[in-house]
Structure formats: C-alpha cells, structure tokens
Specification:
Elements (H helix, E strand, L loop, with lengths): L13 H31 L3 H37 L3 H28 L1 H6 L5 H16 L2 H15 L3 H24 L9 H25 L15 H33 L3 H37 L3 H28 L1 H6 L5 H14 L6 H13 L3 H27 L1 H32 L1
Helix pairs in contact: 1-7, 1-10, 2-3, 2-5, 2-6, 2-9, 2-10, 3-5, 3-6, 5-8, 6-7, 6-8, 7-8, 9-10, 9-15, 10-11, 10-13, 10-14, 11-13, 11-14, 13-16, 14-15, 14-16, 15-16
C-alpha cells in the first residue's frame, strides 16, 4: 500500500511542492558554499603557498564528496521510486544498505589517506613547504572522511522522503561548526596552539562528524517515511545494483571536477603557479552558484522519482520545466556577478596584483558558460532520478572532462592560459546540446510507454 506520508508528492501543486523541497536545500547549499569560501579566506591569511596547498588537495577532497553524493543520489533514487510504486520494504532496504555501503567506503578512504596522499601531491609540486602543508591537510580530511560519507547518506535518505527542512538545519549546523572552529584552530585562539592548514582540516572533519551525529536523534524522533534497521540489513543484490546503477555514474560525474582540476593544475603549473591559485579560487567561488542550483535539483529528484514510480508523467515534466526556469535565474545572477564584480570578489581572498589581474580575466571568461549550463544541470539530475545514470554521465563527461581537457591541452601552448579559461564555456555549450538531445529522446520514450 502506498505510503500516505509521501502522497503529497503526487497531489500538491508542482510549483509550491518544488519550492518547499528546493528552497530549504538552496539555503543549506548557500550555507555550505559560504563555508567553502570562508575556509579559503581564512587559509589565504596564511599566504599564497597555503592557499595553493589547499587547492592541490581539493581534488582529493572532492573525491570524498563525489563518492558520498553519488551513492547518496543512488540511495535517494531507489527510495523515491519504490515509495512511488508503494513498495515500502524495498525502500527500507535501500536506506539500510546505503548506510552500510557508506561505512565500507569510509574504510577505503582511510587507506587512500595513509598511502596515496603524498604520492598524489608530488605529481603537482616539488616545493617542500607546499607539499608539507598539503599532505597534512589531505591526510586528515581523507582518514576522517566517515563523517562526510555518513552525513551525506543520511541527508539523501531524508530528501528522498521529502524531509527537506531537517536536512537544511543539519547541513547548516555542520558548516557553522566548521566556520566557528576555522579561525580558532588555524590561528590559535583561546589558548589553543595555532595549527595552520592542519587546523582548517580538523575544523572541516569535526563539522562533518558533528552534522552526522546530529542526524541520529533527529531520525529517532521523526517518522521520516523509511526505516533503517538490522532487519533490513541483508545482501539484496537487486537493491545494491539499483543503488550503484545510479550511484557509480553519479560518483564518477562528481569526481570529474577533481580529475579535471588535477589535469589543469598540471597544465597551469607549466605556465605559472599563480594560475593554480586562480583555479582553486574559482572552484571555491563557483560552488556559491552551483550549490544553490544543486539545491533545486535535490528538490526535483524525489519529485521526479516518486511521480515516475506512480506513473504521473505530466506532473514529472511540469516539475522539470519549472526547475529549468529557476536554475536559469540563478545562473544568470552568477554570470552577472562574475562579469561585473570580479575585483570585489577576488579582494575577499587578499589577492595580490598578479592574482587579481589573472583572476579577473579567468572569472569573466569562465562565467560565459554559466547560463547555458542550466540544461546540463537539470537534465542530468532528471536522468539520475529516473535511474538512468549512463545518460547523466555522458552529459557530465562532455561538460567537465573531455572538451575542457582537450582544448586546454591543445591550445594552451598557442593561446596561453586564456585557452584554459575559454575551454569551460565551450564545454558547457556542447554538454547543453547533448543534454537537450538525450532528454528529448527520453521524453518521447516516456510518452510512448
């Protein structure tokens, strides 16, 4: 029998429903974006070398988030589709097995942190001071990544059942803990020794672990619509395959920026190490635009998944159209800010003259692709909700990997660093075209079924 708790997914008017699901996640994503920027602002006070060190670790950090978010999206997709189809037992199993998989992934990251951090960083710098700071930061965030992985899995389980308000506050609480601890541990306030970049890493993992621990009493107090229990902890390979069918492509998609940054760092270090810092700043800033957009997608996914499972195709497409409009508005705001106010944005990072000049040009060129990326963002999230990870992966490969790397590698030797920056909007245009084509094909199939 279909759960009455989630029936609002197919009865509430679409715009109010989407806003009620998306706005809390947009706010939480904005808080998380603020945390990312504040973290870099505090680290920048230690000097450009410290900022460069943290930027070099960013790809490894993003791998953690990629795995956590990817598996979380897989869990959410399976839960929402089974709830829409009225299969509560399968939804409960997806939630329970999803948490177990996250524990397993956490153990793998401990091994990566202990044995792969330094070899990875040595690929990009020979500066002993930068390497030392980067390895300290990287080892801490990798070995204590369980907080991030478990927190994000709980977040996606709550989102799959339409419980967006608790996730907003819990995600925000972790970010606030991090922001408070950053200056205390980095600069040594209140009698605590100044730990530098290690302090920034410790503040990060404490915030993540704290957010996860707060989920436990909230889950026990609320009836969120699914149950995580030992009775559901059995090796149901069908559920596991369903989770990974979406989770692996989603993880790969979210990992692509890390691989891209690593490749681009290698190209940029051959031109000037200043450009590595510029790229690091850009990726911190772009989260302030793309994370709120991701909040819309997080609100959209359970609506699409539930209504797909309930065979409410018309409502599903209506939600997608409204999401396109809302995302386009966000992207337009981000593009306008980058084009008109790049100096003011870079001043937040105490940019010196060379960093200011290089960063201003980079932000203005890269931001030209923001608005057109609307199609890629929304349609990629839609495919994930439908359980079609392959299509979503194709879009992301074009958007965040293949085209950007090819253009940067081939043309940077001729046109310099501007070719690297220009590769971003070119990739967004190509990915948007592919996303529209794939979505139209899927739309035709759904109407025929």
């Amino acid at each position: 029998m279909e759960s009455q708790k989630q029936e609002f997914m197919k009865t509430k008017p679409i715009l109010p429903l989407l806003l009620s699901m998306a706005v809390p996640m947009m706010l939480s994503m904005l808080i998380q974006s603020l945390y990312n920027i504040v973290d870099s602002i505090f680290v920048s006070r230690l000097g450009t070398d410290a900022l460069t060190a943290v930027s070099l670790v960013y790809p490894l950090q993003n791998v953690i988030v990629s795995v956590a978010v990817g598996i979380g999206v897989g869990i959410s997709s399976v839960i929402s589709r089974h709830l829409g189809a009225g299969n509560r037992w399968a939804a409960d199993q997806a939630a329970t097995l999803g948490m177990a998989l996250s524990v397993f992934h956490s153990l793998l990251f401990v091994l990566v942190g202990l044995f792969a951090t330094v070899p990875f960083l040595k690929l990009f710098t020979e500066d002993s001071e930068i390497l030392d700071m980067a390895s300290q930061y990287g080892t801490i965030v990798l070995c204590f990544s369980f907080g991030s992985l478990l927190q994000i899995s709980m977040e996606k389980i709550f989102q799959a059942t339409g419980n967006m308000i608790p996730t907003m506050f819990l995600l925000g609480s972790g970010c606030i803990i991090n922001i408070i601890l950053d200056p205390i541990l980095i600069f040594g306030w209140f009698g605590i020794p100044a730990l530098g970049v290690s302090g920034a890493a410790i503040a990060t993992v404490i915030g993540q672990i704290g957010a996860f621990l707060l989920y436990i009493p909230v889950y026990r107090r609320l009836d969120i619509g699914v149950t995580i229990s030992r009775s559901h902890l059995s090796l149901n390979w069908s559920i596991i395959r369903q989770i990974y069918a979406v989770g692996i492509p989603s993880s790969v998609m979210t990992t692509l920026p890390s691989v891209l940054i690593s490749v681009l760092n290698g190209i940029l270090m051959g031109i000037s190490d200043v450009y590595v810092a510029v790229l690091g700043i850009y990726y911190k800033l772009q989260t302030f635009i793309y994370m709120p957009a991701n909040g819309i997608i997080q609100g959209l996914r359970p609506i699409v998944g539930y209504n797909y499972g309930a065979h409410e195709t018309k409502r599903m497409f209506q939600a997608i159209r409204i999401s396109l409009l809302l995302t386009a508005l966000l992207m337009a705001l981000g593009m306008g800010a980058a084009l008109l106010l790049p100096e003011q944005i870079l001043a937040l990072f105490d940019a010196d003259a060379s960093l200011m000049e290089s960063g201003t040009t980079a932000l203005r060129i890269i931001s030209l692709g923001f608005l057109v990326s609307t199609f890629s963002i929304v349609y990629s999230g839609t495919f994930e909700a439908l359980g079609k990870g392959k299509e979503s992966l194709i879009i992301s490969l074009l958007r965040q990997f293949i085209i950007t790397i090819l253009i940067s590698w081939i043309f940077s030797g001729v046109f310099g660093v501007d070719a690297v920056w220009a590769s971003f909007p070119v990739a967004e245009v190509a990915a948007a075209a592919a996303a529209v084509a794939l979505f139209q094909r899927e739309k035709k199939r759904l109407y025929q079924d």
